[in-house]
């Protein structure tokens, strides 16, 4: 099998994982990495067994050895690098969120169409062993018709104050609600059933991060979503959980149906406990390393992109899925501004 050449633009926390996956996946080869921080790019290239290093994304997208790139830049910087890659004829994997404005999202979709390249948005929960059994249960009707859902995906203060240098340019909605929204849309088959979200109401507060840390971004978003079927979902995304928690994120999800329920409590799984100066539950699901190989559902979605390109088939997530989530987060912002529920329609319409 001919190996496809991959590049990664932005090799910070998550881009490094992309680079490691391409360097460790059958049928793929990591050709180059690109980061504005040359030292960081060089470190990642060496850690992956060698790759070319670029600091300007216009240069990496011109590399003829590269067939496809991952865009793993901060949330609000996805657009320009993606357009450059697409115009250079490269297939693109874009980290979530696709874009942070509707105009940018639509522009990406238009350019992808013109160039005839493949676009995949990395909503990796669709590969999660935590959500797959729920998906199967819903398909088989085991828990009946979904009635109410509580979904919490939050981070400790470490993420906006130390891990991300750009949290003040983004929000926990772009960073985490994007995952929740795509997961719900996928579980409920919203795209196939045409716009099943009818209305949402969002409340947020900006106090702790702004006043205690000087980071001007909301502390949390609480969003209630009404679906045409009668289902009500509540999602909770916070960036101010205490750092003493056993994991940097907290994931809980409870689906209550007319015949049963399904609940997930993954970050506080307790299956493996590490006790030093504090108690931690190591990551078993997202991207654990097994014998130096990156594993977990955070890597499965990237491998799915590789396989889709090799087989010449459409990947399981595309630009329209990304556009829908971008539109919903913009609706959350609209609801915040208006301080009232807002109607939602046509999230999938171009
Ligand atoms: N951290 C996570 O757990 C995680 C998980 C999934 C997805 N994501 C998504 O991945 C993306 C990146 O997040 P991250 O946590 O890796 O951020 P990060 O800050 O760790 O990495 C971003 C990298 O981009 C580089 N960069 C910034 N501007 C650049 C430019 N113009 N040209 C080249 N390089 C540039 C920075 O130097 C940095 O190394 C975001 O969209 C985020 O939502 C993050």
Can you walk through the features of this model?
The chain has about 350 residues and is α/β, with parallel strands linked by helices. Helices cover about 35% and strands about 25% of the residues. The protein is built from 11 helices and 17 strands. It has a 7-stranded mixed β-sheet with strand order 12-11-7-10-9-8-17. It has a 6-stranded parallel β-sheet with strand order 3-2-1-4-5-6, with helices on both faces. It has a two-stranded antiparallel ribbon with strand order 13-14. Helix 8 crosses helix 11 (about 320-340). The model has no long low-confidence stretch (mean pLDDT about 95). Nicotinamide-adenine-dinucleotide (NAD) binds near residues 13, 36, 57, 72 and 96.
Keyphrases for this structure?
350 residues, alpha/beta, Rossmann fold, Dihydrodipicolinate Reductase, domain 2, 2 domains, six-stranded parallel beta sheet, 11 helices, 17 strands, 25% strand, binds nicotinamide-adenine-dinucleotide
Strand order, largest beta sheet = 12-11-7-10-9-8-17
Number of helices: 11
Number of domains: 2
Number of strands: 17
Q: What does the largest sheet look like?
A: 7 strands, mixed
CATH superfamily of the largest domain: Dihydrodipicolinate Reductase, domain 2
Give Rg in angstroms. Answer: 20 Å
- Please state the average pLDDT score: 96
Low-confidence stretches: none
Q: Which ions, cofactors or small ligands are bound in this entry?
A: nicotinamide-adenine-dinucleotide
Shape: globular
**Percent helix range:** 25-40%
Give the termini separation: 37 Å
CATH architecture of the largest domain: 2-Layer Sandwich
Strand content: 15-25%
CATH C-level name of the largest domain: Alpha Beta
| Sequence of secondary-structure elements | EHEHEHEHEHEHEHHEHEEEEEEEEHHE
- Derived from helix and strand composition plus strand pairing, the structural class reads alpha/beta
């Amino acid at each position: 099998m001919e190996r496809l050449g991959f590049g990664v633009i932005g090799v910070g926390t998550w881009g490094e994982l992309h680079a490691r996956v391409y360097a460790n996946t059958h049928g793929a080869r990591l050709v180059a990495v690109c980061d504005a921080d040359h030292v960081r790019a060089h470190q990642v290239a060496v850690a992956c067994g060698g790759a070319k290093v670029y600091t300007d994304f216009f240069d990496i997208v011109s590399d003829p050895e590269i067939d496809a790139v991952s865009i793993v830049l901060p949330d609000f910087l996805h657009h320009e690098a993606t357009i450059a890659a697409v115009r250079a004829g490269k297939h693109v994997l874009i980290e979530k969120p696709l874009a942070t404005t509707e105009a940018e999202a639509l522009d990406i979709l238009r350019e992808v169409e013109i160039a005839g390249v493949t676009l995949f948005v990395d909503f990796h929960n669709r590969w999660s062993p935590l959500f797959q059994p729920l998906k199967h249960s819903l398909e088989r009707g085991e828990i009946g018709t979904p009635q109410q859902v509580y979904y919490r995906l939050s981070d400790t203060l470490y993420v906006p104050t130390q891990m991300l240098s750009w949290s003040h340019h983004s929000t926990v909605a772009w960073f985490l609600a994007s995952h929740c929204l795509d997961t719900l849309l996928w579980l409920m088959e919203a795209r196939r059933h045409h716009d099943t979200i009818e209305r949402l109401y969002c409340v947020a507060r900006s106090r702790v991060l702004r006043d205690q840390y000087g980071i001007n971004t909301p502390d949390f978003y609480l969003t209630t979503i009404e679906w045409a079927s009668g289902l009500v979902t509540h999602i909770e995304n916070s960036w101010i959980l205490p750092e003493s928690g056993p994991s940097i994120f907290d994931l809980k999800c409870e689906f209550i149906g007319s015949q049963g329920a399904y609940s997930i409590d993954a970050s506080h799984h307790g299956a493996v406990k590490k006790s030093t100066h504090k108690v931690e539950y190591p990551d078993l699901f997202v991207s654990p390393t097994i014998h130096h190989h990156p594993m977990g559902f955070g890597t499965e979605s990237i491998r799915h992109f590789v396989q889709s390109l090799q087989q010449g088939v459409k990947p399981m997530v595309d630009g329209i899925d990304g556009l829908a989530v971008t539109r919903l987060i913009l609706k959350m912002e609209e609801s915040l501004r208006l301080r009232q529920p807002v109607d939602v329609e046509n999230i999938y319409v171009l």
